[in-house]
Amino acid sequence: MSLSEGAEQHMMQPRVPADKLDEARALTSPFPDSPEIVEKGKVLYHGKGTCFNCHGKDGSGNGPVAAQLDPSPRNFQHHGFWRHRTEGEIFWVIKNGSPGTSMIGFVGQLSDEEIWAIIQYERSFAGKHGPEMMGHGKGMGSMMGPGSGMGGMEHRGPRGGMGGCEGERCGQ
User: Fold this and answer.
1) CATH 1.10.760.10 is the classification of domain 3-158
2) Residue 152, pLDDT above cutoff 50
3) Alpha carbon separation from 35 to 26, 87, 127 (Å, rounded)
4) What pTM was computed for the model?
5) Calpha distance 93→95 (Å, rounded)
6) Could you state, in order of their start, the residue ranges of all structural domains in the chain?
7) In 3D, which of 98, 99, 134 has the Cα closest to residue 116?
8) Using CA atoms, how far apart are residues 66 and 62, in angstroms rounded to an integer?
């Protein structure tokens, strides 16, 4: 397996424990997409949430402490990150942490509303890939589960399916 294939495999791995996936995937943001919520999320990401320390100022997973972490922090600029999970999964990980990683839970430090605002800001790092490519339904799941014929890999996008992108070669 090449390094890029290994990174993509790492990108696809859910960080929510299997016994919590259904619960996490059922969560949805109470907020509509809006510039005001994105701005609140930006302030929290770079301030109270301290997200930038690991995920970097630009969300690429290259924050000041990232090199010390194994596995490395998620890259919010990578369209695969958004394609392979639901917003509920992301919320669950921010709130509860991610076993086997350095991602701590922020329950008690960030309110649910603050976490949802941070997620809207994090999606902005991916440009077109963030809001339109966010997985829904069953996220990645087992990749072979019942559902759409894509094993739970359904995506939001202008053309359905993969939103018109072809993996790393996506020019959007």
Assistant:
1) yes
2) no
3) 25, 18, 14
4) 0.73
5) 5
6) 3-158
7) 134
8) 5
